[in-house]
């Protein structure tokens, strides 16, 4: 199937949703096709430092998310997480209730993952009331969240710019470094 798609349409930006129980044959298929896998940063704190979803364990051909449409926001996750996970995440990310979303965005940005994706709710630091979806639940506000322009302020954009620039995912000019002269070069990693 994937060979036929590539033959007909060329290379497409396909991400393998390799979450849940992933068997060796699934990994072989993903890697054989050169598809990036997914890493959800929120899941990384449920075990120990060897967990595959912690940034120091990523491989380049990965897409990292602070959370997806099916996860709580970073702040909502933090508020509901067991004490052990919060303590681990706080130590790993050097963050707390006030800045957990920036800690996750910073860790994802600094990882070797080729692509880092942050839901707008995390960039804005919104709590669990702004969650997009609860899997398996009908109604009750699922898929109804929409941002309002009044929520989008200059400070989150400034901080996101600083983080992405410092991690090579955005233009260095955003750092306003003294005596910095930009040189032409391709940015290696991207954020969405």
Structure description:
- The protein has 192 residues and is α/β, with parallel strands linked by helices.
- 33% of the residues lie in helices and 7% in strands.
- It has 7 helices and 4 strands.
- It has a 4-stranded parallel beta sheet with strand order 1-2-3-4, with helices on one face.
- The model has no long low-confidence stretch (mean pLDDT 93).
Give me the secondary-structure category: alpha/beta
Based on CA inertia axes, which overall geometry fits? Answer: globular
Q: Work out the helicity level.
A: 25-40%
Radius of gyration: 18 Å
Poorly predicted residue ranges = none
- How many H/I helices? 7
Strand arrangement, largest sheet? Answer: 1-2-3-4
**What's the end-to-end separation, in Å?**
28 Å
Largest sheet: 4 strands, parallel
Mean pLDDT metric = 93
Strand % is 5-15%
| Secondary structure tally: strands | 4
List SSEs in N-to-C order. HHEEHHHEHHE
